[in-house]
Write a structure and sequence with these properties.
The structure holds 2 protein chains of 2 kinds. Chain A is of the alpha/beta class. Chain A contains 9 helices and 10 strands. The model of chain A has no long low-confidence stretch (mean pLDDT 92). Chain B is mainly α. The mean pLDDT of chain B is 89. Classes of the chains: A alpha/beta, B mainly alpha.
Chain lengths: 246, 323
């Protein structure tokens, strides 16, 4: 068994007095597709953001891709290059065209030549099925298209693992499925993924494990069938009851 | 443009009540000035008789005629489309100013004999000092803004002391302090470098705040997206944050540049041969102060207008590339 890509051991985090993450233990192996869910304020976004050190943790260890994340680390950018991140609000660079958004990372930090970066960018734009938008600016695209560009932008960096922080929460309902389809395809291609999402259909379709968090702690971690059919904890049951009601 | 209202109201100047008020106020104001003994009195001679003897009646009659012309002018302009309104009002105001200057009885021959020297020496020095200073000030401002936003107490302390000090002192005093103060430390500084240094430090302090506000206005998500792709701090600042902050930074910076162009006149006190210095000295010998001052004023104004045009071009450039 090779080393896991992500390993969190007894991670604790506080915002001032507020205990945001409580004793998190969490492992992601290569090829794993993990869905993290839970009520709002449960710490799921905080947890996924500590994985590429956008948020600092105070106790415990986080090892990503063999490198431990800590305050004095020199090579945080090296870790981040290999960890793709997709945000709720896309965060595309609005002053750059779609193609430039995709080429920036490979050219500026991977040192790839412009021609090759362009080829890679077009390949991934075709994969998310919007190659015709290459020369537009992010502000000219719909939300769903922007999020697919954001996914393609991360993929251009050739990451070892992709983190998704509520990628469909800011989208209009009819655009959710186009983003989810892209993510499902990505999962079938074998990408290692950690997704914070409330899309239970997506969880059922691709997740190897579902992690349920509440009040900063991991309450339950199980395969999707067991989690949805037979949740072990009271809080999981309540949560599932609430989101599946409609 | 402001938010354009969908309901179009009748122009205020076309309402009878407003017109009547304008006419009345105009008449009172013009009468108040007592224009009997001016050129207007001469024009009105057929109606009011000998202007100097016409007294209150003459004053009121002249006031009424001027007020009617004034009101008619405004009402007519009110009918024109926006573009022509702007052109016409500009032309009228300009004409008023020129006739104001003309009334001084200026000696244009004298102006003609000096103007080339004013432009070749004065304008060149003014532009040179301003351009060098604004370039240096921008560099100071970027460093200052980063320092003011940093979590490093040392950097923040220096930057905030710097902005507080140089924004708090009159520019004229800074010019003196640098020109007369530095030699106390054993370093004798020439007038031009002293002027450039003073302008750079003063405007660098103002622009530090402009750059800081511009950088702060960029959504945190841009930083997160950039850093999460492995871009370092400097790369993120240079390629992601500053280009987006530029549209916000440029209008106030253009403002600063125009202000600096005119504040560079303060450097004349230490004997730099820029526009203001020449305006004050060239007329001395022949007691032709007004000629030179007005010429310099018009030159300053033309230079600022050029800068305004350049500024709006740059603004448009940044607006189009982001959409």
């Amino acid at each position: 068994m090779p080393d896991p890509i992500i390993q969190m051991t007894n991670v604790n985090k506080w915002y001032g007095d507020f205990h945001a993450l409580k004793d998190i233990n969490f492992i992601v192996n290569e090829g794993d597709k993990i869905v993290v869910c839970g009520p709002s304020g449960s710490g799921k976004s905080t947890m996924i953001r500590t994985l590429n050190w956008l948020e600092a943790h105070q106790e415990g260890t986080i090892v990503v891709n063999g490198i431990e994340m800590h305050q004095k680390m020199k090579n945080v950018d090296e870790v981040r290059m290999d960890v793709g991140m997709v945000f709720q609000h896309f965060n595309l660079f609005p002053h750059m065209s779609v193609l430039e958004n995709l080429m920036a990372g490979p050219m500026w930090v991977r040192g790839i030549k412009e021609d090759e970066a362009r080829k890679t960018a077009m390949k991934f734009l075709e994969r998310v099925r919007i190659p015709e938008q290459a020369d537009k600016y992010p502000g000219q695209l719909s939300g769903g298209q922007q999020q697919r560009v954001a996914i393609a932008r991360s993929l251009c960096m050739n990451p070892k693992v992709m983190l998704f922080d509520e990628p469909t929460s800011a989208l209009d309902p009819e655009m959710v499925s186009e983003v989810l389809d892209t993510m499902i395809e990505l999962a079938h291609d074998g990408m290692t993924m950690v997704c914070v999402t409330h899309e239970m259909g997506f969880a059922k379709a691709v997740a190897d494990r579902v992690v349920f968090m509440d009040e900063g702690a991991i309450v339950e971690e199980n395969d999707p069938i067991s989690f949805f059919e037979n949740p072990q904890h009271e809080r999981s049951k309540n949560f599932l009851g609430q989101i599946l009601q409609h | 443009m402001l938010f354009a209202d969908t309901v179009v109201a009748e122009p205020a100047v076309h309402k009878p009540k407003i017109m009547a008020i304008m006419l009345l106020v105009g008449m009172i104001v013009f009468s108040f000035f007592g224009l009997n003994d001016t050129i207007f009195g001469e024009f009105m001679r057929p109606v009011i008789g000998e202007p100097t003897e016409s007294g209150l009646f003459g004053n009121m009659a002249i006031g009424l005629v001027l007020s009617m012309l004034f009101t008619a002018n405004i009402v007519l302009i009110g009918f024109l489309p926006f573009r022509y309104q702007v052109l016409l009002v500009w032309a009228e105001l300009l004409l008023l100013f020129l006739s104001f200057f003309y009334s001084f009885g200026l000696n244009f021959e004298f102006i003609r004999s000096k103007i080339w020297f004013m432009i070749s020496q004065g304008v060149f020095t003014t532009l040179y000092i301003s351009a060098v200073s604004i370039t240096l000030a921008s560099m100071v401002a970027i460093v200052g803004a980063v320092a003011k936003l940093s979590t490093n107490g040392f950097a923040f302390a220096i930057a905030s002391f710097y902005t507080s000090f140089f924004r708090g002192l009159p520019l004229l005093m800074q010019v003196y302090l640098i020109y007369l103060g530095l030699p106390q430390l054993g370093y004798v500084i020439d007038a031009v470098p002293a002027g450039i240094l003073a302008l750079t430090l003063c405007y660098g302090a103002y622009m530090t705040e402009i750059f800081r506000a511009g950088i702060q206005s960029i959504n945190k998500g841009q930083w997160e997206a950039s850093r999460s792709m492995g871009f370092g701090f400097a790369l993120t600042m240079r390629r992601i944050i500053l280009p987006q902050a530029m549209p916000l930074i440029i209008p106030p910076t253009g403002n600063q540049f125009i202000a600096m162009l005119k504040d560079s006149s303060l450097v004349s006190v230490i004997g730099v041969w820029e526009l203001m210095f020449l305006a004050r000295t060239l007329g001395n010998k022949d007691f032709r102060h007004m000629e030179m001052l007005i010429t310099a004023a018009i030159i300053y104004w033309c230079l600022s207008m050029c800068l305004e045009v350049i500024q709006s071009r740059i603004e448009r450039h940044y607006r189009t590339i982001s959409h």
